[in-house]
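LAB NOTEBOOK - FOLDING QUEUE
OPERATOR: T.R.
BATCH SIZE: 2
PURPOSE: Compare the predicted structure-token outputs for two unrelated chains run back to back under identical settings.
PRIORITY: normal
REVIEWER: second-year student, initials M.K.

ITEM 1
FIELD SEQUENCE / FIELD STRUCTURE:
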Amino acid sequence: MEEFDYIVVGAGSAGCVVAARLSEDPNVKVLLLEAGGPNKHPYLKMPLGFLKAVVDPRFNWGFLTEPEPGLGGRQLPLPRGRVLGGSSSINGMFYMRGHPGDYDQWRQMGASGWGFADVLPYFKRMEKSWRGEGKYHGASGPVEVNSISSPFLLHEPLMEAAPKAGFPTSEDLAGDNPEGFARGEQTIDGRGRRVSAATAYLKPALGRPNLEVRTGALTHKVVFNGNRAVGVDYEMGGERKVARCRREVIISGGAFNSPHLLMLSGIGPANELTEMGIKVVAHSPGVGRNLSEHANVSLEWDAKQPVTFLRHLRFDKLVLSTLRWALLGSGPMATQLNSCNIVVRTRPDYDRPDLQVMANPIRFDAKIWFPGFTERQSHVFWAGLVALHPHSRGWVKLKSADPRDLPAVQLNLMTDPADLAQMRDAIRAVRRIYRTEPQGSLLGAERLPGEAVESDDALDAFIRATCYVAMHPVGTCAMGMGAESVVDSELKVIGVKGLRVVDASVMPTVPGGNTNAPVMMVGEKAADLIRGRSLPRAEI
């Protein structure tokens, strides 16, 4: 039976960070277990490959919601990365922190040490920002962050429209002005390659003799001696194995897999565990509850001229662009497709932005055009509307005691009337933005939902029929939830010893933006907590 100092379960955005940071100490031995495989496929390296990777069953867990009561019983796909790097290897590479008030809210809820001044030093430590070292940014970290500055993406018309539509602009959404229209940022390096947690943290650490990384390893449960975690029971290559742990087990499976593993291990709502025949180690009613996710809807307009990114998807051009990316790391295939990152308040009395708009000059269903063989699609502008602070809450529950069975997931999107009202406001605000000059002169008719869809009832029906997810689930093992807290402010699982959860599941609320950067920040801060140290709070 093998023995390690630390065992990290899940090599996703947080797990890679924790394993790499802990293994910096040559006196400890670290095991990192990942159920998926290596991240070597070209889809996981080329930026636009994410459009394929995110739906590829080789890299995706394949979660699907239960019928959603707020969406007319629809079931939504929930892409989550099953590969080294986790979802950071298949996501859209958008880099955002959210608003400072998001983290101050965590602190106010009882998550001591997680206010914005506490977490900013960890954001800075992880960054290698194109902006350089400064008050809000770091320049020597492992995560390379660059601006989205492609000439193919029609950024300027939206920036010029902002003040005319009544909204501010910002030079830096992670700086003094965390609201407005801004140039987006992405985790793509100077060679046009995706920067995942695996490439940024894990790859440089693989040569360390004290770090063992195993892929294709599905963890069945945490092993306890009394109420202390002493190892994990896992399956690899069809063989069951047990690895012992001298110090701590760290679960980093994400918002779905972490509560799943806790419940399989006997930590969760006692009545539900007993029904599944699982021995209760610790009654923890908050495990799997408080699930929060950003809801999206899409708006589309016809383009008056063939100016959108669709022109780069003609087969011969695409082949040349792919070769250009492979050889030079530049061109249309080497960037995200976002033309402007819009983070604004739809109502002036809100204390922080409630809407993010992913502005993309390409249709949502864009396909490669083979001249002479397939029909050419029309050019379309697409905007993805993200409601940043949802009220609805869902859950994750066991379907069975078999660890190979994915858990049941219920998001309950749009079950709170406030979420429908917020999304209606978002649609009306984005319509106004896109019809403002000079952006308005690029547009023809509104395709989705259509200009006739205007009343509250009509918009609600559209939202319920078309709403989807942003791939930002959090909250199912949360801190700061009072009696429903699963972990404390040091991310230790309440009711047992030697066990922590480190990933998006510990967040009490979802940050107001893309969540990959906040999850890596959680990994950075957790590694320090485990080692009994911390960076000083920022002076801001």
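ITEM 2
FIELD SEQUENCE / FIELD STRUCTURE:
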Amino acid sequence: MWLLIFVVWLVMWAGGSYWYLFGKPSPFSIESVRPPGPREYDQKKRDKVIKQGFSVDKVPKDLDVIVIGSGIGGLTVAATLAKVGKKVLVLEQHDQSGGCCHTYVEKGFEFDVGLHYIGQLHENSLLRIAFDQITEGQLEFVELDQHFDTIQIGLGEEKREYTIFTGKTEMEAHLKKQFPDDVAAIETFFRIMKVSAKKTHYLATLKLIPKWLALFLVKTRIAHLFSPIFTLSGTGATDLVSTLTSNKDLHVIFSYLFYGVPPKDSSIVINALLIHHYKRGAYYPRGGASEISYHIIPVIQKSGGNVLVRAPVTQILVNKEGAAYGVKVKKGQEEVEVRAPVVISNCGIFTTFQKLLPPEISMKQDVQDRLDMMRHGRGSFLVFSGFDATQEELGIVSTNFWLFKNNDMDTSMDEFFALSKEDAPENIPMMFITFPSAKDPESKKRHPGKSCMTILTMVKYEWFEEWKDTAVRKRGDEYHNYKMRYANQLFAWACTIFPKLREKLVFQDVATPLTNMHYLGAQRGAMYSAEHNLDRFHAEAVARNRCNTPVKNLYISGQDVFSCGIAGALHGGLLCASTVLDHIVYIDLLFLKKKLKKQKAKELALLAKKIE
């Protein structure tokens, strides 16, 4: 009798597992991808797609899902759900869609605000396949020069310069040439990079399996028996690299892709993943970052959905049973209710829980417990500069530059963030320089004779907080003069590398944390959303931080689900889609990857026969 019960249970469990993993229709297919169509240069036609303003008559009837925020995480989950027939409405508070993937044009110059380059887009990579699916093959990428990053440490005569190359074997080999006394340290770090890249899906799995099971596997350390990734994710970057080498310059190389967290407070896995991300090449969207939303939106519209801008969500509607059932959208002086059985927030966990939920819901203990898992990220500060000169005349390149005043990132970042508001502008310890116009070959067609540069560094929101209640572009002379103190320091530093910039400068704009709050909806101006500190990446925290929320039918997407950046946010969207559909879409992507590889192998075999 007991044997019969066990057999029946086993069959039911096996059948249920098979149905969960393989029994539901895949959103993805080879057939949905088609060759890229002609590039659309007419801005008015483009605006009809990426700048469609909110009005009640444009809201589709009988919605299945509402997504708050049109960043890449929101667009990814929306497009994935649309590809299984869901009618999805994406609401964006800015006047154009895309979030950190949007661009803005001023005085004939086009600037990217958050997308500077992307990796892991080589043929048949998982990320490339995902992009192809959510744009149906319409988004094209340009591969940048093999020398994609330059790192400068120190100032004046003490300045040292290192170059980072892409390449499956070239990246490591090139680094060894520059650090011949630290070959063993580099080899060990690259092994950590490999483990981090190949086993990160184990961490993602913790978010997809039942939470009780994920916590059981982590707390009993059974999970740790499968892979060192569970230990590495909770290991501090400085602690680990200090065991490999005493060379502080090399310490910087291992953590140079900064996101506002000192290496001592960051996970070695995240820092390793950021470098590994570009191992197989660095890429930029052909036609600029706005091409991303431009080509995803039609996929959402195919299933009857839409993406509407100038649609600030003021509240998530929650019923008496504690379930989300829609949102309120501000339209002029009124608020419009838009309803759907599923609500997904792509605007960050703090904004979602602290600003959009009704007070009686946001104060509940389970919501507060979820908030306590995260800390606010550092604010971003950007300088956008336009030049009346070509790339060749300025001597600029597609290579990015990362500048550090010294090789002690931990101390310099701690000291900088401890400074007073008055002392901070003249003591910036690091910055990033990128030239969007030099990365996109079509920039010369769209903006002939013009070049642009974006500078990025991290700052404290508190230094700008006194102006938080003022209106954008109307914050007064004191605010303008204060932000220009930062901008002038950063621009002068850039001119030490590219001296021709100053004489050709004709336009300059500055974005502070307050700017990012206004245009991107970034809480406290943190473009990388919640802080990526070490506590967040301990295995148990990873298991607890998932797309589900304590509010029924409300889900989280984007950077706060797993990690920062365009790729991190996109994966946040895929994880969210998996949760909403109760179906792991990554399995579909992996099957698709296998099919594409077989298809490629057949094509190569046929080509070889023809050559013979």
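REVIEWER COMMENT (ITEM 2): The first helix runs from residue 2 to 22.
FOLLOW-UP: none requested
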